[in-house]
Amino acid sequence: METSRRKLADVPLFRGLDDAELRLLDELLIPRFFKKKSIIFHEGSDRESIYIIQEGLVKAFKTDAEGHEQIVNFLGPGNLFPHTGFFLLSTYPATTEAVVDTRVLAMPLSSFEQVIASTPAIAIKVLRVMSQTIQELQTKLQELTGQDIQVRLTSFLLGMATKQGVEQPDGSIRVTLPVTHQELANTIGTTRETVTRLLAQLKKEGLLEADRKGFLVPDLVALRQWSKPERD
After folding, report:
1. What angle do CA 200, 211, 78 make, to 5 degrees?
2. Are residues 138 and 159 in the same domain?
3. Predicted pLDDT at 125
4. What φ, ψ does residue 71 adopt, rounded to 5°?
5. 42, 71, 165, 206: least CB-packed within 10 angstroms?
6. CB 174 within 8 A of CB 211
7. What's this model's pTM, rounded to 2 decimal places?
8. What is the pLDDT of residue 90?
9. For the domain that residue 44 is a member of, what is the CATH number?
10. Which position has the higher pLDDT, 109 or 142?
11. Is there a single domain that holds both residue 137 and residue 193?
């Protein structure tokens, strides 16, 4: 399908592939639909497929021994998940849940591995991008270490605006992210009260407008400036 091939071409992991290589992978894709709050896969379950989001929003999270949820990421259209362990006989590293009604393209790992084994050109390109992704994740982890909560929150908001935001006629950025303050807190490792206080401060300063469906960033540059640690 031409549409799904375009989706594949937009995924960083497959961005270096030519049309013939994309066509090989396109034949493996299985469209699936998950209703809001549906679990796509559970942490610890056998790894069977990788997924590409066509439309909707997916939450990836881990649960500790006491049942506390730590949100790893929110993923929107064009994102592939899970990001790691494609060629390992292992389990899923986190649970994923559809935040809203979500359509994905599933690619069985066994079929993907067969294509990789029979097409060295694809294998080389995929491994190259995987190495870059690992470096980016390591850099991101280093950046988060030691950051205060204000910086973590604004870094998260800026990241979502950059990756998932839609520019409005007035130049502002709208992000669809129907999550609670508690879920935001679980994402950046703080309390709901702290998130509520910081969002109120951002609103007061005219840097963010939030509602139950997501948030609006009037000026990305101003929000980025506010997030700098040097700010008093």
Report:
1. 115
2. no
3. 79
4. -80, 125
5. 206
6. no
7. 0.82
8. 81
9. 2.60.120.10
10. 109
11. no
CATH code of residue 192: 1.10.10.10
Q: In terms of domains, do 49 and 112 share one?
A: yes
For the stretch 155-188, pLDDT in tens is 899 989 988 899 999 999 999 999 899 999 998 8
Output the 3-class SS for the chain: CHHHHHHHHHCHHHCCCCHHHHHHHHCCCEEEEECCCCEEECCCCECCEEEEEEECCEEEEEECCCCCEEEEEEECCCCEECCCCCCCCCECCCEEEECCCEEEEEEEHHHHHHHHHHCHHHHHHHHHHHHHHHHHHHHHHHHHCCCCHHHHHHHHHHHHHHHHCEECCCCCEEEECCCCHHHHHHHHCCCHHHHHHHHHHHHHCCCCEEECCEEEECCHHHHHHHCCCCCC
Q: Which two tokens stand for residue 186?
A: 């679980």
Spatial separation of the C-alpha atoms in residues 6 and 19, rounded to whole Å: 10
Tell me the C-alpha distance between 75 and 59, whole Å.
6
- Predicted confidence at residue 21, as pLDDT, reads 87
Q: Give the rounded percent of residues in the chain with a pLDDT score beyond 90.
A: 47
